[in-house]
Amino acid sequence: MSEQARRAIASYMTYQEAERAVDHLSDQGFPVERVAIIGQDVRLVEQVTGRLGHGGAALQGAASGALPGALIGWIFGLLNWLDPVVSGLLLALYGLVFGALVGALLGVLAHAAQRGRRDFASVSSMQPSRYDVVADEAVADDAAQLLAELPGGTGTGTGTNSGARKGSRPRSGPAIT
Predict the structure, then answer these.
(1) Rounded CA gap, 107 and 56, in Å?
(2) Second label for 119, Cα 20 to 30 Å away, from 15, 59, 69, 110?
(3) Average pLDDT over residues 87-98
(4) Other Cβ atoms closer than 10 A to 173
(5) How far apart are CA 16 and CA 39, in angstroms?
(6) 69-78 contacts: CB < 8 A, separation 24 or more?
(7) pLDDT by residue (tens digit) across 3-25?
(8) Which residues does 170 contact at the CB level (< 8 Å), separation at least 6?
(9) SS3 string of the chain?
(10) Sign of the CA dihedral with 98 first, then 102, 103, and 108 last
(11) In sequence order, what are the residues at sequence separation of 6 or more whose Cβ sits closer than 8 angstroms to the Cβ of residue 113?
(12) Neighbours of 67 (CB within 10 A)
C-alpha cells in the first residue's frame, strides 16, 4: 500500500473537536478512510503522583508479580490430568502468593539500588498541542467544503478551530505510541 499525499484541512485544540469533524464527514457520506487525525507538537507529561518509599516499591512489585504468578500456577495446575480445575485454582492461588512475594522483594531491591534518585511515583502521558484533520490530496477540497458546513463553525486550512478557546490546555485523546 503506497502512502498518498495528504493535506491538512482543519486544526483543532482538542481531540474531541477533531473527532466531531471526522464524524460530521462520515455523516455526510464522505469516504472517511481517506482521513486521519494527527496529533502535532507532542510533548511528554509526567505527572508525579506521590512519594515512593520502600513500602510503596514493595506494593508495586507485589502487584506486578501477582498476576504472572497466578497465571503460571494456573497453567501448571491445568496440566494435572486427574483433577485440573481444583489443581488449577489451588496452584493459581499459590502462584499469586509466590509471585506477589517475589515481586515485592524485587521491587524493594530495585528501589534500594537507585539510592534515592527516584523517590517518587508518576504517570506519563503524551499530549499534542493541536490535532490536525488531514485528507488525501485528491479529496481534501471536498472534505474542507463539508467541514465549512459543520454547525458551530470550523477552521479550514491549517488555522485553529474558531470554537476552541485560546489558552486552553489540550486534552489527551487516544493513546499515541
Answers:
(1) 9
(2) 69
(3) 87
(4) 17
(5) 12
(6) 69/95, 69/96, 69/97, 69/98, 69/99, 69/100, 69/102, 69/103, 70/95, 70/96, 70/99, 71/95, 72/99, 73/98, 73/99
(7) 679 999 999 999 999 999 999 99
(8) 13, 14, 15, 127, 128, 129, 130, 131
(9) CCCCCEEEEEEECCHHHHHHHHHHHHHCCCCHHHEEEEEECCEEEEEEEEECCHHHHHHHHHHHHHHHHHHHHHHHHHCCCCCHHHHHHHHHHHHHHHHHHHHHHHHHHHHHHCCCCCCEEEEEEEECCEEEEEEECCCHHHHHHHHHCCCCCCCCCCCECCCCCCCCCCCCCCCCC
(10) positive
(11) none
(12) 14
**Can you tell me which residue has the cell 512489585?**
61
CA distance 64 to 121: 15
**177: its cell numbers:** 505510541
Which residue would you say has higher pLDDT here, 146 or 87? 146
Which residue, 175, 135, 169, is CA-closest to 39?
Answer: 175
Output the nine-digit C-alpha cell for 37: 487525525
What pLDDT, in 10s, does the model give residues 47-92?
998 888 888 889 888 999 998 999 888 888 877 766 777 778 888 8
Q: Residue 30: pLDDT above 50?
A: yes
